[in-house]
C-alpha cells in the first residue's frame, strides 16, 4: 500500500468497453460492456460456454483481445496511448498493469516443486524485489490468515485440494493486487472442502479493500457475498442486479431456466 | 531394472573368467588407459550436449526469428547427418578453413553437438509437457518469461528430462568409439592396436565390451538415482 | 578456394556408385533388425525365465556397448571360429544385431499396448499361442509402431559410415579414399553429409505422413 494516492473514487476499477473475443468463428464475448466499482464484489454466473471465464482470463491478459478496450484503474489494460491513439501495449506496460491484478485458478496451479511458503515468496522476491525476510514475513502473515501457518513447509502434493487452494489465494494476495479474480475456485474441490475456501474469501472481502470478481457455481455464496450478480449468456450479460433480486426473482426466462437447472443439480 | 542386475552378474562372471586367462595382465593396463580417455570424452561430450541442447531448445521456442532459424538449422543438420560424418568433417575439413583443433577437442565438440541436437528435442518436449496452468500462474504473478522458465518451468521439466537424457548419455558413450578413427587413443583405438599386435581377438574385444558395459551401467544407475532424488524434490505428483 | 565445383562434379559418379553399397547395407541390415527384433521381443515376454532373462541380458548388453566394437568383434572374431565372411556381410550382421535390440523395445511396447481382452478372447476361442500371435496380436501391434520402426531405419542408415572402419567400400570409405588421393577432403565429406541430410529429411517427412495417416485411421 505504498504507491500512488487513490484516484477519484467515482472512476470504475474495471471497465469493459465493447470487448469482443473470438475463437475462430465462435464469438465468446460479444461487445461486452461492464463496469465494476472500486471494492465491489461481483459474482459471474452462467452456463458453460457463456464466456464468463473468458472475462477473467482477458483481465489477467491470458487471452488476446479481439475488439474493444479494457480499462483497469483508469488505464487501458492491453493498449496504451501513443500520439493520441490507442495502440497495442508493450511488455512493460502489460507488466505494470498485471501488477494490479491477482488471480486464483480452478486447478490451483501451485508450483509443485516449491513449498507453500516458497510459492508465496517467489514472485514477491523476483518481481517486487522484496528481500527474503520481507517476503517471508508477508507470506507468513497471509498463510496465517488462510489458516495454514502449520503447513508452510509442505509441498502441494502433501496437502488437500482445499488447503492447496488456500495457499493459492495467499500466493495471489502476496502481490498486493487491487483486483482479485476467482475462476471457479471451488469447482475442482471435493464438496466437504468447499466451505474452508469460501470462508477465506468471505474474510478477505470483509477485512481488505479489494475489488473482487468471481466466476462461481455456488449460488448460496454469491447471494450472501456479492454486491452484484451478472448472468452471462452467449457472450453477453443477459441480466444483472443485486443478488437477492436476480437469484430470487429473475426477470429473464433464460436466467430462470439456468437457476432452476442449477438448483435441480444440487 | 531386473535386466540390469542380470547384466551385472553376467558381466562380473565373464570378467572373472577372462581375468583368469593368462596374458590378461599384459594388455589390461593399456585398455584401462584407453578407458580413461573414453570417460574423459564422454564427460566432456555430455557437458557440451547439455549446454547445446538447452541453448538450441530455448532459441527454437522463444528466440527471435533469426535465432530460431539458426537453432532449427543446427538441430536438423546434426540429426540429419551421421555422427561419423560430422566428426570427419570437423577433423578433415575445418583445417582447410584455417581452424585447427586438437583431435580431443574435435571429438568432444562433434559428439557433444550431435547428441545436443537430439537433446534439444528432449528439452522442448519436456518443457511443452509442463501443464499450461503453470505458465498462467506465472503470468498472474507478473513474472517475466525468463523468470518463469528458470524458476518454474525448467525445474519441473527437469524431472521428465532425466530418463531420456540417460539414454542420450549412453548413446554418447557408445559414439565415443568413433574418435578412435581420428587418431585418439581411446578404448576402441587401444583394442584395435592390441589386436593387431597380439591377435588375442576374442579376449581383447570381450574385455573391451565389458568395460563399455560397466561405464554405461554407471550412467544408468547414476541417472536412476538422480531421477529418484528429483522426483522427491518435486514432492512427487503434480498439484 | 574452399570449394572446387569441378572436383565435386568429377567425384559425384564415384560417390553415387558407393551409395548403392550404403543403401544395400541399410536395407539388408534393417530387414535383419526387424525380424530379429521381433524374435527378441517375443522371447523376452516369455513366461519361462530361463528364456526371458538371457534374452533381456543380451538385449541390454548389445544396446549398452558401441556398434563400432561390435562390428570389429563380428569381423575379427567369427573367422577364429572358422566362419569366414566378407566385410560387408559382417557389417550388415552387426548393424542388424545392434538395431534388433532397439526394434525389440519398440515391438515390446506395441505388444504391451494390446488390451488383455484380446488375449483372453483368443484363449476363449481356443486359438493356439502361435495363431494368437500371428492372426490376432501381431496385426494389431504392428501398425501403430511403424513410425518408431521408421525412425530406427533412419538411425541405422546414418550409422552405415561405421562400416568404413572395416574397409567396406560404402560412401564414407570412398570419400576418405578420394580425400587421401587428392588431399581435398572438403568436397567428398561435405557431399556425403549432404547425401545423408537429404535422405534423412525425406525419410522424416515420410514418417510424419505415415504417422498422420495412422492417427487418422484410428478415429
Tell me what you see in this structure.
The complex is a heterotrimer of chains A (266), B (239) and C (219). With 266 residues, chain A is of the alpha/beta class. Chain A folds into two domains: 14-100 and 178-265, Rossmann fold, CATH 3.40.50.300; 112-176, no CATH class. Chain A has helices spanning 52-59, 91-98, 116-126, 132-145, 161-173, 191-207, 219-225, 243-248, 253-265; strands at 14-23, 26-36, 41-45, 67-72, 75-76, 79-82, 85-88, 101-104, 179-183, 211-215, 228-233, 236-241. Chain A has a six-stranded mixed sheet with strand order 8-9-10-3-11-12, sandwiched between helices. A four-stranded antiparallel sheet of chain A has the order 2-1-4-5, with helices on one face. Chain B has one domain (46-231): Orthogonal Bundle (MetI-like fold). Chain B is built from nine helices and no strands. In chain B, helix 2 (24-62) packs antiparallel against helix 3 (65-80) and helix 2 (24-62) packs across helix 9 (201-233). The model of chain B has no long low-confidence stretch (mean pLDDT 88). Helix content of chain C is 81%, strand content 0%. Chain C is built from eight helices and no strands. Chain C has helices at residues 5-44, 49-64, 67-77, 87-112, 116-124, 129-159, 171-182, 186-218. At the B-C interface, helix 1, helix 3, helix 4, helix 7 and helix 8 of B face helix 2, helix 3, helix 7 and helix 8 of C.
CATH topology name of the largest domain in chain A:
Rossmann fold
Total individual domains of chain A? 2
Low-confidence stretches of chain C: none
Structural class, judged by helices and strands of chain A?
alpha/beta
Helix-strand topology string of chain C: HHHHHHHH
Protein name (chain A): Amino acid ABC transporter, ATP-binding protein
Domain ABC transporter (chain A): 14-259
Main location (chain A): membrane
Keywords (chain A): Amino-acid transport, ATP-binding, Cell membrane, Membrane, Nucleotide-binding, Transport
Chart the SSEs and their pairings.
The complex is a heterotrimer of chains A (266), B (239) and C (219).
Chain A: E1 14-23, E2 26-36, E3 41-45, H1 52-59, E4 67-72, E5 75-76, E6 79-82, E7 85-88, H2 91-98, E8 101-104, H3 116-126, H4 132-145, H5 161-173, E9 179-183, H6 191-207, E10 211-215, H7 219-225, E11 228-233, E12 236-241, H8 243-248, H9 253-265
Parallel strand pairs in A: 3-10, 3-11, 8-9, 9-10
Antiparallel strand pairs in A: 1-2, 1-4, 4-5, 6-7, 11-12
Helix pairs in contact in A: 3-4, 3-5, 4-5, 5-6
Chain B: H1 2-19, H2 24-62, H3 65-80, H4 83-93, H5 103-129, H6 132-140, H7 145-175, H8 187-198, H9 201-233
Chain C: H1 5-44, H2 49-64, H3 67-77, H4 87-112, H5 116-124, H6 129-159, H7 171-182, H8 186-218
Helix pairs in contact in C: 1-4, 1-6, 1-7, 1-8, 2-4, 3-4, 4-6, 5-6, 6-8, 7-8
Amino acid at each position: 500500500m505504498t504507491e500512488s494516492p487513490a484516484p477519484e473514487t467515482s472512476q470504475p476499477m474495471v471497465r469493459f468497453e465493447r470487448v469482443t473475443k473470438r475463437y475462430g468463428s465462435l464469438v465468446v464475448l460479444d461487445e461486452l460492456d461492464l463496469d465494476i466499482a472500486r471494492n465491489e464484489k461481483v459474482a459471474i454466473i452462467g452456463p458453460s460456454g457463456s464466456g464468463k471465464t473468458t472475462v477473467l482470463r482477458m483481465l489477467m491478459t491470458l487471452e488476446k483481445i479481439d475488439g474493444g478496450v479494457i480499462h483497469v484503474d483508469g488505464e487501458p489494460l492491453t493498449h496504451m496511448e501513443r500520439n493520441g491513439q490507442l495502440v497495442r501495449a508493450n511488455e512493460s506496460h502489460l507488466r505494470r498493469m498485471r501488477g494490479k491484478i491477482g488471480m486464483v485458478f480452478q486447478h490451483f496451479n501451485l508450483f509443485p516443486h516449491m513449498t507453500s511458503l516458497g510459492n508465496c515468496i517467489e514472485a514477491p522476491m523476483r518481481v517486487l524485489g522484496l528481500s527474503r525476510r520481507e517476503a517471508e514475513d508477508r507470506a507468513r502473515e497471509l498463510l496465517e490468515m488462510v489458516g495454514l501457518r502449520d503447513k508452510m513447509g509442505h509441498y502441494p502434493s502433501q496437502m488437500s485440494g482445499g488447503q492447496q487452494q488456500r495457499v493459492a489465494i495467499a500466493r495471489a494476495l502476496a502481490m498486493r493486487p487491487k483486483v482479485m479474480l476467482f475462476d471457479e475456485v471451488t469447482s475442482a474441490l471435493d464438496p466437504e472442502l468447499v466451505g474452508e475456501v469460501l470462508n477465506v474469501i468471505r474474510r478477505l472481502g470483509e477485512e481488505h479493500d479489494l475489488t473482487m470478481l468471481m466466476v462461481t457455481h455456488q449460488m448460496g455464496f454469491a447471494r450472501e457475498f456479492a454486491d452484484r450478480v451478472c448472468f452471462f449468456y452467449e457472450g453477453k450479460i443477459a441480466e444483472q442486479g443485486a443478488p437477492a433480486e436476480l437469484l430470487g426473482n429473475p426477470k429473464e426466462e433464460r436466467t430462470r431456466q439456468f437457476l432452476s437447472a442449477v438448483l435441480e443439480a444440487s | 531394472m531386473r535386466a540390469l542386475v542380470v547384466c551385472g552378474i553376467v558381466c562380473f562372471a565373464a570378467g572373472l573368467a577372462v581375468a583368469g586367462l593368462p596374458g590378461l595382465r599384459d594388455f589390461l593396463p593399456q585398455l584401462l588407459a584407453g578407458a580413461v580417455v573414453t570417460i574423459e570424452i564422454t564427460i566432456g561430450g555430455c557437458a557440451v550436449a547439455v549446454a547445446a541442447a538447452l541453448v538450441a531448445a530455448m532459441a527454437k521456442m522463444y528466440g527471435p526469428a533469426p535465432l530460431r532459424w539458426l537453432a532449427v538449422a543446427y538441430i536438423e543438420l546434426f540429426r540429419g547427418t551421421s555422427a561419423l560424418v560430422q566428426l570427419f568433417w570437423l577433423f578433415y575439413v575445418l583445417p582447410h578453413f584455417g581452424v585447427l583443433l586438437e583431435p580431443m577437442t574435435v571429438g568432444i565438440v562433434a559428439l557433444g553437438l550431435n547428441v545436443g541436437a537430439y537433446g534439444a528435442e528432449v528439452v522442448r518436449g519436456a518443457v511443452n509437457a509442463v501443464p499450461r496452468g503453470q505458465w498462467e500462474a506465472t503470468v498472474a504473478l507478473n513474472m517475466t518469461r525468463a523468470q518463469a522458465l528458470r524458476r518454474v518451468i525448467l525445474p519441473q521439466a527437469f524431472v521428465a528430462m532425466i530418463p531420456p537424457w540417460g539414454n542420450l548419455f549412453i548413446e554418447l558413450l557408445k559414439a565415443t568409439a568413433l574418435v578412435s578413427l581420428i587418431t585418439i587413443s581411446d578404448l576402441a583405438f587401444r583394442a584395435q592396436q592390441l589386436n593387431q599386435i597380439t591377435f588375442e581377438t576374442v579376449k581383447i574385444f570381450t574385455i573391451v565390451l565389458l568395460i563399455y558395459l560397466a561405464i554405461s551401467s554407471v550412467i544408468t544407475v547414476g541417472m536412476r538415482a538422480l531421477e529418484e532424488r528429483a522426483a522427491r524434490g518435486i514432492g512427487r505428483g503434480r498439484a | 578456394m574452399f570449394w572446387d565445383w569441378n572436383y565435386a562434379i568429377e567425384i559425384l559418379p564415384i560417390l553415387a556408385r558407393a551409395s548403392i553399397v550404403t543403401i544395400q547395407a541399410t536395407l539388408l541390415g534393417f530387414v535383419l533388425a526387424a525380424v530379429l527384433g521381433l524374435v527378441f521381443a517375443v522371447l523376452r515376454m516369455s513366461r519361462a525365465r530361463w528364456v526371458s532373462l538371457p534374452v533381456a541380458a543380451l538385449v541390454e548388453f548389445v544396446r549398452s556397448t558401441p556398434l563400432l566394437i561390435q562390428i570389429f568383434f563380428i569381423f575379427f572374431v567369427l573367422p577364429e571360429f572358422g566362419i569366414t565372411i566378407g566385410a560387408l556381410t559382417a557389417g550388415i550382421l552387426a548393424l542388424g544385431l545392434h538395431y534388433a535390440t532397439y526394434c525389440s523395445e519398440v515391438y515390446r511396447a506395441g505388444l504391451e499396448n494390446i488390451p488383455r481382452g484380446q488375449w483372453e478372447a483368443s484363449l476363449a476361442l481356443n486359438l493356439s499361442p502361435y495363431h494368437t500371435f500371428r492372426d490376432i496380436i501381431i496385426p494389431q501391434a504392428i501398425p501403430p509402431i511403424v513410425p518408431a520402426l521408421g525412425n530406427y531405419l533412419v538411425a541405422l542408415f546414418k550409422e552405415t559410415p561405421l562400416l568404413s572402419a572395416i574397409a567396406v567400400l560404402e560412401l564414407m570409405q570412398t570419400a576418405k579414399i578420394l580425400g587421401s588421393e587428392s588431399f581435398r577432403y572438403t568436397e567428398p565429406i561435405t557431399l556425403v553429409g549432404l547425401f545423408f541430410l537429404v535422405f534423412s529429411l525425406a525419410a522424416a517427412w515420410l514418417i510424419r505422413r505415415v504417422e498422420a495417416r495412422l492417427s487418422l485411421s484410428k478415429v
